[in-house]
């Protein structure tokens, strides 16, 4: 193996370690918990689910951050383009206006994370906040005619938000804070009918855990029929069999996501992806399930 390749791999490992590091910084829990409590206490009402992205089917925050990042990246290019100074200032201002809604969706999602992901998310937020402050100072300098200072502050701001973006990508994909945790269920669910046990083994209205092959399921009996869903919550894999049944919905015990029993649709976040539902039938007093549409 040549020396250049070894150096490249060494640099890559150091970068991954740097991105992994914040999740182990437990000293961030002290400021993190009050901030999470404050985010949870915001009087958002039904808008909280909209900010999570329940209506969209995936988290809203990653979509909103594209606008300020795009504005600020474009501003950096225009700063060094003849005649682009005025447009650059306008883009810096537009990015600052868009940063508020993007940050709000991020804080709402962040408050429902577990401690390791919350620590990474807090460093991500601090990086982005630093970037916003630098861009605000940049805009002020530009308005006062100090264009060179404004450009330098803008480049510093772009550096800060780029670090924040890297941590955000790490949080979303390496730590899997946003993906649908139940996406593999259709590949694990049985194509043919399989038995889960006698109907009498399932108390009415109480979640019961069962497995078929590698797939964990939760069964909620309603009289002579049963609702059967994937047992691990699509948000962060909470055990739905330990949850509660409320008004025809199953509530996750970890973060309070609610899924409609009859079709798995999200009624309340932070989950944004529906919970997979299996087709079920009672035959000769025994409950059987299979992948919907497999017949």
Characterise this structure.
Helix 5 packs antiparallel against helix 8 (147-174) and helix 6 packs antiparallel against helix 7. This protein has helices at 3-20, 29-41, 47-52, 61-64, 66-78, 85-110, 115-143, 147-174, 185-188; strands at 194-198, 208-212, 215-222, 225-230, 244-246, 249-251, 258-260, 266-268, 277-283, 286-290. It has 2 domains: 3-174, no CATH class; 185-290, Rieske [2Fe-2S] iron-sulphur domain (Rieske Iron-sulfur Protein). With 295 residues, the chain is of the alpha+beta class. The strands form 2 sheets. The protein has a 6-stranded antiparallel sheet with strand order 1-10-9-4-3-2, with no helix packed on it. A 4-stranded antiparallel sheet has the order 5-6-7-8, with no helix packed on it. Strand 7 (258-260) and strand 8 (266-268) form a beta hairpin.
Helical segment count: 9
Which H/E pattern describes the elements? HHHHHHHHHEEEEEEEEEE
The tally of strands reads 10
Tell me the number of structural domains: 2
Proportion of beta-strand residues: 15-25%
The main β sheet shows up as: 6 strands, antiparallel
Outline the secondary-structure elements.
Blueprint: H1 3-20, H2 29-41, H3 47-52, H4 61-64, H5 66-78, H6 85-110, H7 115-143, H8 147-174, H9 185-188, E1 194-198, E2 208-212, E3 215-222, E4 225-230, E5 244-246, E6 249-251, E7 258-260, E8 266-268, E9 277-283, E10 286-290
Antiparallel strand pairs: 1-10, 2-3, 3-4, 4-9, 5-6, 6-7, 7-8, 9-10
Helix pairs in contact: 5-6, 5-8, 6-7, 7-8
């Amino acid at each position: 193996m040549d020396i250049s390749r070894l150096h490249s791999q060494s640099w890559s490992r150091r970068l991954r370690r740097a991105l992994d590091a914040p999740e182990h910084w437990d000293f961030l829990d002290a400021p993190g918990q009050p901030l999470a409590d404050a985010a949870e206490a915001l009087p958002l009402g039904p808008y909280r689910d909209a900010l999570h992205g329940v209506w969209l089917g995936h988290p809203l925050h990653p979509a909103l951050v594209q606008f300020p990042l795009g504005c600020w990246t474009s501003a950096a290019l225009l700063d060094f383009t003849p005649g682009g100074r005025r447009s650059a200032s306008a883009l810096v201002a537009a990015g600052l206006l868009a940063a508020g809604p993007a940050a709000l969706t991020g804080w709402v999602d962040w408050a429902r994370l577990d401690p390791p992901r919350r620590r990474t998310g807090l460093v991500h937020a601090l990086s982005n906040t630093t970037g916003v402050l630098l861009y605000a100072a940049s805009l002020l300098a530009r308005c006062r005619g100090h264009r060179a200072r404004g450009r330098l502050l803008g480049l510093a701001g772009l550096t800060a938000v780029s670090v924040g973006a890297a941590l955000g990508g790490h949080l979303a994909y390496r730590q899997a804070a946003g993906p649908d945790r139940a996406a593999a269920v259709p590949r694990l669910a049985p194509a043919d009918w399989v038995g889960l046990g006698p109907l009498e083994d399932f108390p009415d209205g109480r979640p019961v855990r069962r497995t078929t092959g590698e797939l964990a399921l939760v069964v909620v009996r309603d009289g002579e029929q049963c609702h059967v869903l994937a047992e691990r919550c699509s948000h962060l894999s909470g055990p739905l069999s330990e949850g509660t049944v409320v008004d025809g919905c199953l509530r996750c015990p970890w973060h309070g996501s609610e899924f409609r029993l009859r079709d798995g649709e999200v009624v309340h976040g932070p989950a944004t992806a529906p919970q997979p539902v299996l087709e079920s039938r009672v035959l000769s007093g025994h409950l059987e399930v299979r992948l919907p549409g497999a017949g």
